[in-house]
Structure formats: structure tokens, C-alpha cells
């Protein structure tokens, strides 16, 4: 994606996972969140930022933190209906019931933030 973007978009990607990690999570779990950052976080006219951090706290949790420039949609914008985020929530409920936390908010710096935490070794009983 960096090749396709103009110079006024800063992309920062951090993967903080131990080389010998054996933690497994469902495939393509974060793809909708990453796609949304590129779809909705770039205005084409302003200096924009996309920051993607995926890190593991060994044996405790996996954290996916995505932040991007916030450009609220106007009434004419038909670029998305929120279905992707609903599907992520349903998938999390099925795969990790009661073993995840997901916060979505707009920061004081006008960044759209999505922080998804999967708690490992969670006992639902």
C-alpha cells in the first residue's frame, strides 16, 4: 500500500511478537480493521497518518492497535455502511467469547482508533 499512496500519507507498521512465539490466532482476523484504515483514513488532500501495531504480551494477550486520520463521512459518501465492523464483532463473539476487548473512539488528536485485545488462556467458566 505504501507504493500506492502519496507522500502526504505516513504509514507506520510495528509487529512486536517474539520470534519463538507459538501463539495462534484465527487467520485474517485483523484484515477488515487494516482495510478500513486505508479506505477511510486517507483524504487525498491532507497530511494523513495510518499506524498499525500488533503486539503480543507473552502468554497473556495479543493487541491490535490501529489509528488513522479521521475524516467523517458526509451524507453523499456511500463508501461503507459499517458491515465490516459488525462482521468483525460477530467473528470475535464466535471465536473468542468473553475473551476480548474492543474499543473504538476518536482521539483528541483527531485519529480514529481501534484497539482490539485478545486475552490468551481465558477460562470462560
Give Rg in angstroms. 16 Å
User: What general form does the structure show?
Assistant: globular
> What's the CATH architecture?
2-Layer Sandwich
Helix proportion of residues, in percent? 10-25%
Order of helices and strands: EHEEHEE
- Would you report the number of β strands? 5
What ranges have pLDDT less than 50 throughout 5 or more consecutive residues?
none
Question: What is the chains' assembly state?
Answer: single chain
Instruction: Name the structural class.
Output: alpha+beta
Beta-strand content estimate:
25-35%
Number of helices: 2
Strand order of the largest sheet: 1-2-3-5-4
**What is the terminal-to-terminal distance?**
42 Å
How many domains make up the coordinates? 1
CATH superfamily: Histidine kinase-like ATPase, C-terminal domain
Main pleated sheet:
5 strands, mixed
Mean pLDDT: 89
Task: Output the CATH topology.
Answer: Heat Shock Protein 90
Amino acid at each position: 500500500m505504501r507504493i500506492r499512496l502519496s507522500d502526504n500519507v505516513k504509514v507506520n507498521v510495528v509487529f512486536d511478537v517474539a520470534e519463538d512465539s507459538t501463539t495462534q490466532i484465527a487467520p485474517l482476523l485483523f484484515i477488515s480493521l487494516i482495510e478500513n484504515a486505508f479506505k477511510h483514513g486517507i483524504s487525498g488532500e491532507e497530511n494523513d497518518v495510518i499506524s498499525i501495531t500488533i503486539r503480543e504480551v507473552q502468554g497473556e494477550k495479543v493487541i491490535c492497535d490501529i489509528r488513522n486520520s479521521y475524516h467523517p463521512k458526509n451524507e453523499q459518501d456511500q463508501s461503507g455502511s459499517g458491515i465490516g465492523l459488525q462482521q468483525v464483532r460477530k467473528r470475535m463473539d464466535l471465536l473468542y467469547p468473553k475473551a476480548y476487548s474492543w474499543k473504538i473512539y476518536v482521539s483528541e488528536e483527531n485519529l480514529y482508533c481501534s484497539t482490539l485485545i485478545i486475552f490468551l488462556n481465558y477460562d470462560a467458566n
